[in-house]
Design goal:
The termini are far apart. This protein has a three-stranded antiparallel beta sheet, covered by helices on one side. A two-stranded parallel sheet has the order 1-2. By secondary structure, it is α/β, with parallel strands linked by helices. It has ten helices and seven strands. It folds into two domains: 139 residues, Rossmann fold, CATH 3.40.50; 94 residues, 2-Layer Sandwich (Pantoate--beta-alanine Ligase, Chain: A,domain 2).
Length: 256
């Protein structure tokens, strides 16, 4: 959706390394927003984004208007069901319906062989993969690892909304997820115990308000009752007026 940063650069660079031609779409999609004023507030530095794209070797940028993508009221939508129910789907009703719908439209317009998505939005990645599989869309979905600041904060276009004080405490989200990952790697199988420890770390920072912190299977994104294999520890927090999301893929250690 634009406001490009090094995380997007990693997507472009991997596409560039694997492809004869690279097309970058930039479109702030109105039907995936459900927070009041969030769509209007979303940054749109198109000139800077075009320069960024050129510097990373993009062959073409597709930056349509809302009227081009939605020339008439949209009455057909893509609903990916259970993969989209929890976490982001619970707290942002209709969000993934909007995401899946616009991504399918972009696939139909651009007709790519491969499409690159970041693991930072792991549930979105799972939704797109399931949509492509269920609807027999002829595109390979390539996942690219999350790009982080040196202090662990996941790169996001929303980070620019953080004040200096808020930016200083924002890495606590990653620290809590990393602590959860260490607990799981050490053999903890009770998701409630893992979540309690992560919540305790987040609660130490009064500027941070937890919206959700969940442990879900991968790729179905369903909360687990017991940790017995690969899981995603995912969270959304508010730091001041800015909502941040992050996740880590964790591997349980099975003891005989």
């Amino acid at each position: 959706m634009g406001a490009l940063h090094a995380g997007h650069g990693a997507l472009i660079d991997q596409a560039r390394a694997q492809s004869a031609s690279v097309v970058l779409s930039i479109f702030v999609n109105p039907i995936q927003f459900n927070q009041g004023g969030d769509f209007e507030r979303y940054p749109r530095p198109l000139a800077a984004d075009l320069a960024f794209a050129e510097a990373h070797g993009v062959d073409a940028v597709f930056a349509p208007s809302v009227e081009e993508i939605y020339p008439q009221p949209q009455v057909t939508f893509v609903d990916v069901g259970r993969v989209a129910e929890h976490m982001e789907g619970q707290f942002r009703p209709g969000h993934f319906r909007g995401v899946a719908t616009v991504v399918l439209k972009l696939f139909q317009i651009v007709q790519p062989d491969r499409a690159y998505f970041g693991e930072k939005d792991a549930q979105q990645l799972a939704v797109i993969r399931r949509m492509v599989s269920d609807l027999n869309v002829a595109v390979e979905i390539v996942a690219v690892p999350t790009v982080r600041e040196p202090d662990g904060l996941a790169l996001s276009s929303r980070n620019r909304h953080l004040s200096a004080e808020e930016r200083a405490v924002a890495p606590r989200l990653y620290q809590a997820l990393a602590a959860a990952a260490r607990s799981i790697a050490a053999g903890e199988t009770d998701p409630q115990a893992v979540k309690r420890a992560a919540h305790a770390l987040l609660a130490e920072e009064p500027r941070m308000r937890v919206e959700y912190l969940e442990i879900a299977d991968d790729p179905e994104m369903q909360p687990v009752a017991r940790i017995a294999g690969p899981v995603r520890v995912a969270a959304a927090v508010w730091v001041g007026g800015t909502r941040l999301i992050d996740n880590l893929l964790c591997q349980a250690t099975l003891h005989k």
